[in-house]
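In this section we walk through a basic example: taking a raw amino acid sequence and producing a predicted 3D structure, encoded as discrete structure tokens. The instruction is simple. Fold the sequence below.
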Amino acid sequence: MNSWKTLTLCIIAYSFVACSAKKNVTLPNNSSQSISASNSGNKKAPATTTYAKSSSTQQYINKYKQVAIDEMHRTGIPASITLAQAIFESSSGNSDLATSANNHFGIKCTSDWQGPTYHKDDDRPNECFRKYPHAEGSFRDHSEFLKRPRYAGLFKLERTDYQGWANGLKTAGYATNPQYGPKLIEVIERYELYKFDKSASKDPVASSGDRGSLYFEQKPVNEEGKIASKSTQSDNEEVVPAGFYRVKAGDTLYGIAKKFNTKVENIVTWNNLESYSIAVGQLLKISK
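The resulting token sequence is shown next.
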């Protein structure tokens, strides 16, 4: 009788151990499968995937899409191309050039550049890059940069032909990366930037034509600092008090500072400016 009890208990104990062992084997396998799924395991990502659709990039697009659209209507450069280049060149505004020099397109100094500069190692040590007072200035200068003769053929393309523009930029020598065109196309299609190429035009933005300076659109303002309509602007030249200067069309802070032998930072401080943007008709203090 005791032997039967002993045998029965052994069978029950064996069954329990077997079930427990089976569970212990199953859980790690499931856990391993879960980790593999989240890390993609040994599966390779599609060859066309070069950018993850990140929230930081989407925020960058939301912040600068209107600037790109405005530049498109001013110059004819597709907004999708401008945004894709900015995303790619500046890592969505997180690159050293973007954070330290407001340079979102990696544009280097040229013989006609008269603005501030920023030096960093690139293809060669301590290379000279253009520096801007704000990101908008970089976007505007990018448009002006593409007006050079080597890119003239791009402007014969349709504004909605982002593929032609992307590949054309590589062919014209904008970048040395052989995959530059496809990479731009990938960004455009991943974030559907081509939608901005069909945006309706607003009032045309006047160009100052002041190449090589610190770019930013200037809008007429009244004495209270508000945007003035054309009807409120006076054609008469006023007498400006000593030590002050009335901003004219085409003026930049850099140009004004150079004209009056002072520094841009001084003008910003003396006038409590929150940014480096100035407006036509604005009265600036240019000396202590």
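Looking at the output, two observations stand out. The radius of gyration is 30 Å. The CA atoms of residues 158 and 164 lie 9 Å apart. In the next section we compare this with other chains.
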